[in-house]
Amino acid sequence: MPLNRRMFLRATALAGGTTAFSGALWQRAFASGPAQPGPGPYGPLQAADGNGLQLPAGFTGRVVARSLQRVEGTRHTWHPAPDGGACFADGDGWIYVSNSEVPVVGGVSAVRFDASGKVTSAYRILNGTSLNCSGGATTWNTWLSCEEHDFGLVYETDPRGQKSATARPALGRFKHEAAASDPGRKVVYLTEDQGDGCFYRFRPETWGDLSSGTLEVLVGSGTGPVQWAKVPNPQFWLTPTREQVSNAMHFDGGEGCYYTHGVCYFTTKGDNRVWAYDAAAERLDIAYDDDLVTSGEAPLHGVDAVTATASGDLYVAEDGDNMEINLITTDGVVTPFLRVLGHDESEITGCAFSPDGSRLYFSSQRGKDGFIGGTDGYTFEVAGPFRR
């Protein structure tokens, strides 16, 4: 990035060009600009454990599943290239679902845990789809699995595997990345993994039913007040959805997306930013940008998947760099939470907390060998005293 742009961005932030958020827990966090490096609430990372995980004191990790190997205690073979994921309560236990970002046979698998965290079963919930990248959980406890190609669809799936998965073309055909449900506005936000991609929202005719509704795109001129405009032809097009509205905002490679406490956070890999859309105020701001770090070294690069705890802390995964998940606290501090050693050509995907907030799940998509097909993928669990 040219130095003049870097200096301009920093000057703008320090002058108040990037303002504090009005989300409930984030009003004070960025009063002086986007998140800055600092000490985290859990202390420094310790030496790597036997699985190559560097964690803070008091946290432990384990491998839950390996690509092309049977999930321990089951007859199910875990999929290659594990990507987006989420957790769902299920009786006295929970389920973790995981996409497979491979062509033609992508789909989704799930692992069920009992109350003690023991794996009790693993199974498929979606087959025959392609490049299932990220997605998002709905408030009615289904998983939206997103295809990442030019005519990609969103598939609504049942984490328990009891109901057939259903394509939801009303959410548009484009290079889908992630989705996030906003029950306050009764909309689903969507990111698009293109260098000039857009940020969308879908307004279903009936909340809880994604078979019909209106796809809209964010319009505006930058941070500050923004609006939404209807996408004329979201399903069948000669002109891509991102080019159908003249004043649509364009983002450099949309990635993760997560809604919490009135704010939808989404990441863009091309400029290494975490954005914050204040849904009530209809305002867009920047929660993190490595070019807006004003002291010390920026710890977070290659922003990708994002999730949050009930307390409002954000956890942002890296695609590459030094394979970290970074924590952005409600005080506006960004700091490494964990690091995966020996997976130098991989990326971290599928970050999701168990329903009680005590365990964090994520994957190393390509594992130690770094093969693009993801045949050496690892899915991890980290347990410990997370702030809830």
TrEMBL record:
A Pfam family this chain is assigned to: PhoX
UniProt feature coiled coil, ranges: none
Sequence intervals crossing the membrane: none
InterPro entries referenced in this protein's UniProt entry, alphabetically: PhoX, TAT_signal, WD40/YVTN_repeat-like_dom_sf
Name of protein: DUF839 domain-containing protein
The organism's taxonomic lineage, starting at the top: Bacteria, Bacillati, Actinomycetota, Actinomycetes, Streptosporangiales
